[in-house]
């Protein structure tokens, strides 16, 4: 880990250098948001469904310790081996031990944001284990040696030409060919070989049912199933908050998940794993890694209701124009910005500020998390704990003084307008962050207050 | 203290006051033409729907669409002509890598999303519907339900080792959001809707 971590604004500045790419990224994600809208508006009772999902998740959080034990007991009765990991390190060590105990040095993995959060791939690679990500987007960023930039669309920041170049180098596709059909076919052939030869497969978990001890994994590609049904060992990693009470509640969440994520009525595959298949071993690792602490934070516990659909990212004007990597955490976007400070408040102090607080994230959230309100609350906590930069502290103080003194406010406005008009070079320079990728506004002749005084009816 | 006990006690200490579970039965909505909706939605997600009166029509379809020498696996309870006798695939799942076409019976179809519900006990191997190049599913019209709520009501407390909803062919849009069919699972999915 580097000691000097760039913050969201600095990383966004790098992303923003290529204006055309930013526009393309922005439009692509907005298109996904529109697909979500079409689905949501076309389904009768959508708002009732969101409300039900939100209430089910409230119930889950309020009874989580019991549900976890119920899930464990039922899973064990089904023949599943249940492990518990207090943190990322313990999770990674459990995976390694399971592999080494069985003499396995190669593993195939389907999408799991939890393993991204735990940095499992890096850990296993350091131990000499070969891990191949099998979701197409994840495989692409893995070949590019980058983290995913979006929880549902891992390589949404990449142009097809860049993917064509990567596949040319690693999979031998023709140079200069960037046809998505051809590239996907090449990945299919390459990964089929991987699925057929790996003895261990790791998958994530979308929902784990306390009542039955089963868990559900959703994919469009079929990669989780191809891995799990061909391997001798299936390891499923889940955060403690993935629990839902009863099987019938899957109906609510499966109706919401894909519609919110990509505007599909359901993912192509929603697989229900109950028992290991004959001759196979099925392991579940239940991971805390800070979640129980977040559960105790009254203002922020609702973030644990998240079902990882990514709708808040697709709609966020800051995410769309700054890119997932500028959030420097496994889960980017608005939801990531309220999850990350729980793990490390100092390191992620910048993230709750990477928002306009417009509230669009909360409006699209299928489980009704009050995301923008939590962002606002995190800002207050972070400032109180002293994790903001000196410049931000100073400018906030100045702003507070100006806004609480009418005289200072009027003078400040006058000076500002004079400078914009007569000395634009004083603000149109790189020391003014508002000038980056923006033109300063045209100078009005007078303030609204002045205009009002002149024009109001006497 | 074990990690298990540490986690459970931290969760118990931090979880808020008990909040009640909502009723979800009212979400089922009103009456719809389930078969029509199923056909419309599955077609929209890249699947194909063919209405049939008798299984012979599936036999004819297979004979017309599958070349000699290509492996066909039929897991129905009856043979489908010379090309698709009933198949026993109890050996290693890896041995299924060369299946061109798999024919399966679905327990249920869901109108709102075009998914079919497949239970392990009719798959031969769990990997069958994923590893085959093309998938054919037989579904009785009387088993098409309107929503996922109806589906789970029907599933109830059924015991299965593995079961899955499949809605259309395997797909990805990971490269610049361009939709490509045939990611890792089957390249096509054809549902024969039977008049029962």
Q: Describe it for me?
A:
The complex is a heterodimer of chains A (458) and B (196). With 458 residues, chain A is an alpha/beta fold. Chain A has three domains: 1-42 and 306-388, no CATH class; 47-150 and 199-289, NagB/RpiA/CoA transferase-like (Rossmann fold), CATH 3.40.50.10420; 400-455, no CATH class. Helix content of chain A is 51%, strand content 10%. Chain A contains 21 helices and ten strands. Chain A has helices at 8-15, 19-42, 46-62, 64-77, 88-101, 113-117, 120-126, 136-143, 160-171, 180-197, 223-230, 249-261, 291-296, 311-315, 317-322, 333-343, 360-364, 371-384, 390-404, 406-422, 448-455, and strands at 81-85, 106-109, 130-133, 200-203, 207-209, 215-219, 233-239, 243-244, 269-273, 281-287. In chain A, the strands form two sheets. In chain A, strands 1-10-7-4-2-3 form a six-stranded parallel β-sheet, with helices on both faces. In chain A, a hairpin with a 5-residue loop joins strand 5 (207-209) and strand 6. In chain A, helix 16 (333-343) runs parallel beside helix 18 (371-384). The longest helix of chain A has 24 residues, at 19-42. The N and C termini of chain A lie far apart (66 Å). The mean pLDDT of chain A is 94. With 196 residues, chain B is α/β, with parallel strands linked by helices. Chain B has one domain: Rossmann fold (3-Layer(aba) Sandwich). In chain B, 23% of the residues lie in helices and 25% in strands. Chain B has helices at residues 3-14, 34-44, 56-65, 128-131, 148-155; strands at 48-52, 71-74, 99-105, 108-110, 115-119, 134-140, 144-145, 162-166, 171-172, 180-181, 188-194. In chain B, strands 1-11-6-3-2 form a five-stranded parallel β-sheet. A four-stranded mixed β-sheet of chain B has the order 7-4-5-8. In chain B, strand 9 and strand 10 form a beta hairpin. The longest helix of chain B has 12 residues, at 3-14. The radius of gyration of chain B is 20 Å and the shape is globular. The chains are: A alpha/beta (458), B alpha/beta (196). Strand 9 of chain A pairs antiparallel with strand 8 of chain B.
């Amino acid at each position: 880990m580097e000691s000097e971590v760039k913050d969201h604004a600095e990383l966004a500045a790098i992303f923003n250098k290529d204006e055309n790419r930013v526009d393309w990224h922005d439009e692509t994600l907005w298109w996904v948001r529109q697909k979500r809208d079409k689905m949501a508006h076309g389904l009768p009772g959508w708002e009732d469904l969101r409300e039900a999902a939100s209430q089910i998740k409230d119930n889950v959080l309020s009874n989580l310790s019991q549900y976890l034990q119920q899930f464990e007991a039922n899973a064990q009765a089904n023949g599943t081996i249940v492990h518990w990991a207090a943190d990322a390190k313990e999770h990674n060590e459990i995976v390694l031990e399971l592999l080494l105990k069985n003499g396995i040095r190669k593993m195939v993995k389907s999408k799991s944001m939890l393993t991204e959060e735990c940095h499992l791939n890096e850990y296993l690679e350091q131990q000499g284990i070969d891990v191949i990500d099998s979701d197409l987007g994840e495989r692409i960023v893995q070949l590019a040696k980058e983290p995913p930039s979006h929880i549902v669309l891992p390589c949404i920041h990449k142009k097809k030409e860049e993917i064509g170049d990567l596949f040319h180098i690693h999979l031998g596709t023709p140079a200069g060919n960037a046809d998505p059909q051809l590239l996907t076919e090449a990945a299919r052939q390459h990964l089929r070989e991987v699925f057929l030869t790996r003895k261990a497969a790791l998958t994530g978990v979308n929902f784990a049912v306390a009542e039955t001890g089963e868990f559900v994994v959703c994919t469009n590609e079929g990669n989780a199933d191809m891995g799990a049904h061909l391997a001798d060992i299936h390891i499923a990693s889940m955060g403690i908050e993935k629990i839902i009470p009863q099987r019938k509640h899957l109906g609510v969440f499966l109706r919401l998940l894909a519609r919110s994520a990509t505007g599909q009525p359901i993912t192509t595959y929603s697989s229900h794993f109950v028992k290991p298949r004959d001759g196979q071993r099925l392991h579940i690792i239940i991971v805390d890694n800070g979640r129980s602490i977040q559960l105790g934070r009254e203002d922020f516990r609702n973030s644990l209701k998240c079902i990882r659909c990514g709708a808040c990212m697709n709609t966020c004007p800051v995410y769309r124009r700054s890119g997932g990597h500028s959030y420097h955490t496994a889960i980017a976007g608005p939801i990531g910005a309220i999850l990350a400070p729980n793990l490390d408040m100092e390191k992620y102090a910048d993230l709750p500020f990477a928002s306009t607080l417009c509230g669009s994230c909360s409006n699209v959230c299928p489980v009704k998390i009050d995301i923008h309100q939590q962002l606002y609350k995190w800002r207050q906590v972070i400032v109180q704990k002293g994790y903001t930069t000196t410049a931000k502290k100073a400018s906030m103080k100045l702003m507070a003084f100006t806004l609480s003194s009418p005289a200072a406010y009027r003078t400040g406005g006058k000076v500002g307008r004079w400078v914009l008009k007569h000395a634009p070079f004083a603000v149109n320079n790189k020391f003014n962050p508002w000038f980056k990728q923006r033109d300063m506004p045209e100078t009005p002749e007078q303030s609204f207050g002045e205009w009002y005084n002149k024009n109001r009816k006497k | 203290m074990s990690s298990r006990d540490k986690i459970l006690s931290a969760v118990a200490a931090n979880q808020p006051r008990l909040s009640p579970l909502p009723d979800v039965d009212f979400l089922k909505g009103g009456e719809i033409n389930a078969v029509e909706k199923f056909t419309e939605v599955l077609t929209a997600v890249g699947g194909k729907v063919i209405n049939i009166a008798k299984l012979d029509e599936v036999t004819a379809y297979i004979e017309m669409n599958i070349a000699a020498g290509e492996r066909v696996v039929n897991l129905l309870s009856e043979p489908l002509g010379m090309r698709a006798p009933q198949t026993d695939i109890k050996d290693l799942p890896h041995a299924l890598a060369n299946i061109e076409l798999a024919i399966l019976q679905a327990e249920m179809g869901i109108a709102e999303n075009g998914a079919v519900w497949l239970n392990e006990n009719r798959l031969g191997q769990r990997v069958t519907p994923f590893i085959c190049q093309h998938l054919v599913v037989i579904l009785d019209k009387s088993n098409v339900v309107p929503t996922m709520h109806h589906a789970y009501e029907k599933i109830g407390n059924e015991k299965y080792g593995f079961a899955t909803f499949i809605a259309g062919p395997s797909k990805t849009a990971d490269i610049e959001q361009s939709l490509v069919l045939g990611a890792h699972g089957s390249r096509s999915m054809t549902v024969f809707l039977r008049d029962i």
